[in-house]
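Could you join me in thinking about how sequence relates to backbone shape in a protein? Label the sequence line and the structure token line clearly, so we can match residues to local backbone shapes. Once you have written the record down, we can walk along the chain together.
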Amino acid sequence: MKRKLTLIMVVVLVIGLIMVGCSSLGSKAANSGTENSDNGNKLPLSGRHFVIGVNAECAPYESIDAKGNFVGFDIDFADALSKKLGFTHEWKDMEFFGLIGEVQGKKIDMVISCLSGTEERKKKVDFSTGYNYSISCIISKPGSGIETVDDLKGKKVGAAAGSNFEALIKAVPGTKLISYDSTVPAVSIVGTPELDALIELSTFGEHYAAPAGLEAHVIPKTIAEELAGERPLAIAFPKGSDLVPIFDQAIAELEEEGVMNEICAKWLGQDYVDKLPIFYEKE
């Protein structure tokens, strides 16, 4: 009887050792698969979490959908950067005019919100390389005769507070600048005694102005640069941030891989592409 019990205990022990060994091998295989998912290299910003500032009132670059989710060009762009570099992130929605101050004061880690790196802003924060060139336009009522920058002289023209469009309006002699925390509500008064026109993005014109029966007239790139130092959209970081070269490299890789073209096609569409020749035309 004792021999039978001993034999049974030996068999159980052997089976247990085999199961432990198999479990160990399975665990190693799983770990090996994880390591190979990024070619054995740890992503540059793995384990980092960032708070990204945004003004979610600029569809299709950034807005909030019916379910409360952030959606748009910049949102997908940030997701692509997150996947490539390994960081996690959350969005902090705020008024456009407050974005630079928030990142300057390090209350947020960066801004990805249809923001261009103008010389004035570069005095306060650092910028990544450009990732997209937005198209500026004049939004006006059909038949108003306001289609070019010269037509703005003596008119009441609106722009988002803190935007580069303010500088453009100020550069046109005799024009009265009217600043708004958000230009979305201002669309409804364009063409009234309160407001003659708005300066905004061409995509803003398509998403907010066109449905209201307004026209959007492209401002050529050369004129935008001359009047307001128009620059490509870029990511804003606190001064001296060590993240700039890391993000610059990632942006270059996303462009080479065709990811930026995919995001552009998804959110800006063919109409945006069609406007580019007008935007870049020589003056």
The longest strand covers residues 49-54. The chain has two domains: 49-133+232-269, 136-228.
